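Issue 218. Parser rejects a valid record. Input:
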Amino acid sequence: MKPAYNIKKINQYAPDPKLISEAVNIIRKGGIIAFPTKGLYGIGADAFNFKAVKRIFDIKRRPLNKPVLVLINDLKDLDKLVDHVPKTAKLIIDAFWPGNITIVFKAKEVLPENLTAGSGKIGVRLPVHKVSRALVGGINGPITGTSANISGKTGCSNIEDMDISIINKVDLILDAGHLKGGPGSSVIDVTLDPPQILREGEISGKKILNIIDNGVRLFY
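Output the parser choked on:
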């Protein structure tokens, strides 16, 4: 296992600015951290750093054809990531952000190809969790928000349940104790017409349908 100093306790309701600064510096230097999100632990790296994103794929043993979602600090960050914010996305943003819904947009060509897995699309979320918000605020840019689990395995709401290979390979773990768990974020692709829900998570398809006038096709 990593030495104890690489696993540091953090208050998820009032995160220590010094710990946040340490994590931000690691990310800026191309490192990778594990951190708490609303329900599960995630793995964070600079979304624009090709090598760091590649490390995440290696750590998670993630298939190279599966894109990695990103977390942002402010709606203005969308300008760095996406070509266009359609009306449907604006409706969802107004209703649910910050919150547990990931919106898939058409990605800008400047993004690392491994981040989008060559799909030309990028999933984006404006998080509500205080640690996540502090991290993206400190970076002043997008970080990856993929779950801290081996691909295909269940995400973890406790550090004790995190795969030992992940613990051994990330540069810092921010341990906020037990998280609420749950199904994770809902995912909706607004590049399609009509938009399609790719995953129904904490926010139900019914709630999203109430926002979108023309309806969506719901996938399970």
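Fixed in the parser; the record now loads. DSSP finds eight helices and twelve strands in the chain.
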